[in-house]
């Protein structure tokens, strides 16, 4: 009975997320729940502070009704992303809108030091941007192999992390409900909740930064695999690459297209003086031909991986999250062209290969989505007595 009650409450809350201000009778039609059940769930969700009533409006045939909507003022969701070189911390409302975010280098510090830094950054954001709001929880996303069930970073080669109990460490320091997941899976949750409607049918998320990984979902299921190891594409072999990889082989996808590799190649080509990815990206944004060519070649290789994922998984859409796709003209087109050339399955790369729905806020959104997904799957999961 408890499971059925949670599922029904979830259906009601998701209907409001999708539709915005909505009548109870419309929620009943959308969800297939009885009017009495919807009334009861709405009352419970209002009591918990997730929904609020709006002023009465006239109906289509003149009969007034009182719509309900998400209360985006009472709570805040905290999100953090741990990248190879820096931390991103953000605050989101219940619709996933990023209210504030902050980025800081972590200088490769030990896990406990990074945990303390996340807590400090989070405190600063809460005091500065949400002093009157209640924090529902903290979602954390990172690359590498993440066991979502235990909240453990099983392995993150670039950070040198092995078996780091990230959820436990952050729970102890922040006192919040903490959820940890791989960033590609977290971003799939974000897309399905807040972004691409087509992602609810089937979707592949391909993340390319210093870490390269992927995630896949179909229907209501985001695939994890044993110990959440699904989506490990870092060591896919790509054509025309002899780039040495930390795994001992050469030509692996991550080693070939990682941001550190691109920065190094830009130095070797005398495009920049120091191997700083942001510098070569900025030059490409400004139209430097050599920098643009470097990113287009990278995009071609990313397209190889995208084509393979299309043919193996046959998703409705494939989302590429990469800074150059967002900021450098022609990169997305190059990926689509390579998919068109290589894939047997993808018939329309222009429609099926897309960029993230969260340009500029992807990392904070990934973290926050770990908590938002838990909320919308089970709005009754939150222990409001422990929320701070």
TrEMBL record:
The source's domain of life comes to Bacteria
| Record-linked InterPro entries | ATPase_NBD, ROK, WH-like_DNA-bd_sf, WH_DNA-bd_sf
The entry assigns this protein to a family as follows: Belongs to the ROK (NagC/XylR) family.
Concerning PANTHER family, the annotation shows: BIFUNCTIONAL UDP-N-ACETYLGLUCOSAMINE 2-EPIMERASE_N-ACETYLMANNOSAMINE KINASE (PTHR18964:SF149), ROK (REPRESSOR, ORF, KINASE) FAMILY (PTHR18964)
What protein does this entry describe?
ROK family transcriptional regulator
Q: Which organism is it from?
A: Amycolatopsis lurida NRRL 2430
